[in-house]
């Protein structure tokens, strides 16, 4: 399923007519994004626009060194985690829990020194990276000022902290795709960013820059000629050159659109001096100050009392409103049968796509939730457990009317004692037996199991027979027949196939 979000306007090199500039969100999740621009070029504004536009479609995690993105919480329901109030172990657990509960998070690192920022950001990223496979839901991971967390050269921080954070950033950009992590990193200069981290991005948004070496490198990445490199010097604030499979196949000049939330950081603004300047400024500033009048120097951000971050995550998950209210399926609701029928139809349509049956369950779950929201079934139509049960039924291809029959209810009850990954295969055989259809062939069984391997599909039939769920036999012509144990149902003879004894 393709989701295109508008990030601004695309303009010609000569300032021609503007057209909408869109970003393919699904493609971005697979190919990652690198943003470069000098300070004041509009990088944070671009990231905010991307986060706002994609918030309804994908879970988000923001590594925020300056506390600029905390305002997303009030508008889009992000949980803001104050990294200064928690140790690395708690942040590691929070990184895992946010993926398990699918909560959007802003990790606020403001008030910490450089080494503490690196250690805490690394712990949070590692928690997201090391979560169990069943929770590999897609997450858009935005890292602002990425050169702080993946520096190209050693700085004032310890070697241990630098290596730990660099390893976490490398995992995000190099190995995160298979785990559902899509990195979006922003940096002031490519020269400041570790090459292993920058090299994995396939999409680029290059903003204003002035150094010759930076302009030349940006031009090389975008496939522009060297004589065109000076165009980066002329880009106004908020305009970027875009290239990549999720953006454009050719370099495209983009003006970033407006945002709905505001940054807590205020830009420089001219302010006139007060008219009543003191008569003796020297005495005002440098005269001895009595000890009792000396102001106490406060910490930049006093740490709040310790908070159980895992309890905070759980409370936030419970407090997030369902969209629309009352959309969660309840079996006692009079409209529940109609909702189940509509959701079953969405699952069948999703599995009809050529590669859908072979995608991991977390990716199918994310796609299903998006389809439910589009169809008006709400943000949380099914939890993951109920989705797995509904997916096994949909893999069998049974229709809505047959799914309401007493025989099918009995088949689903028999399937509950089997592991989740083979329930779809069992229900496919059960459907053929109930409807008196030929025994499914190896390709149909492989599709129901989510594999391209026919030998693996045949092994699942052998496993079901070992579990005494089915019995396999041949007719006189060598065609396969499957019978369900305890139900008295039997398929018709299918194609000639190996019994995998």
TrEMBL record:
Gene3D superfamilies: P-loop containing nucleotide triphosphate hydrolases. GO terms for molecular function: ATP binding. Keywords: ATP-binding, Nucleotide-binding. Residues 29-196 form the AAA+ ATPase domain. InterPro entries: AAA+_ATPase (IPR003593), ATPase_Atu1862_pred (IPR014588), HerA-like (IPR008571), HerA_central (IPR002789), P-loop_NTPase (IPR027417). SMART domains: AAA (SM00382). It comes from Lichenicoccus roseus. This is ATP-binding protein. Coiled coil: none annotated.
